[in-house]
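Predict the assembly for these three chains.
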Amino acid sequence: MPELPEVETVVRGLGPLLLGRRLLRVEARRPDLRWPLPADLGVRLSGARVQALARRGKFGLLSTDRGDTLIFHLGMSGRIRVSPGSPHPHDHVLFAVEGGTVLAFHDPRRFGAMDIARTDALGRHRWLAPLGPEPLDPALAPDHLARAAAGRVLAIKSLLMDQRVLAGIGNIYAAEALFRARIAPARAAGRVAARRLIALQAALADVLAESIAAGGSSLRDHARVSGELGTYQLGFRVYGRQGKPCPACGRALRLSVIGGRSSVHCTACQR
DNA sequence: ATGTCCACCTGCTGGC
DNA sequence: TGCCAGCAGGTGGACA
């Protein structure tokens, strides 16, 4: 899925299509994704004008002039695509926009989710309230991660992917940031030196920013709203490259399982 | 509290 | 060529 850079790319792609425009008709074609869709989804969004688009962690946020915000998560396989003709299978929610555009929330595995909250109470929503800070927030304390890691026995990679610690990091960017910071992903978080965690947090911001600039990573499912693919997968140094040479030292990269997620790292460079 | 494991769902791929 | 086990960008809940 879509991790932070992919969701950011999707949200940016929606701007020109939606900002200031009215949603003529919003229609759910099934009652649920991962969880039930709000029963009043269509009623609350149809006829409303889109005022703002934003991202928080891996959630996209679409706010209307009625004081509502649609919160959406793309799960593992979610995409939003311009849907010119009749809906494809797995186009679960359709948005007909003033001006003729039709957008489809497309999600074969249905791990995605949607909800609607009042915009003035967004921060209290159960999906958003637990989220940690944004890793690209310029105001983020450089030692935020170092503080979160103190005393933790959990693998540093699992800690990075905990949305309560930092919002938006998933399996790809955790692996890439750990490689850049030369930290072994299975190392207990509390046993990584603070200065190395500060470097890790900086490496993470670099990787995320580079990926956003490339339109995110397109593996199986991610694409921009336009259908154009992101290209950051071409820049992966370790993710998905098990058995291939480490870009730094040439040794074969190793695959392991950490916290139930596959992980790739260099046993020589990462300690 | 903390950490680990599993289920949820569909589609694709690599090995036979 | 065809079949199918295994795996995929996430995450909440059950359990030790």
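The radius of gyration of chain A is 19 Å. Chain A has two domains: 4-124, 144-265.
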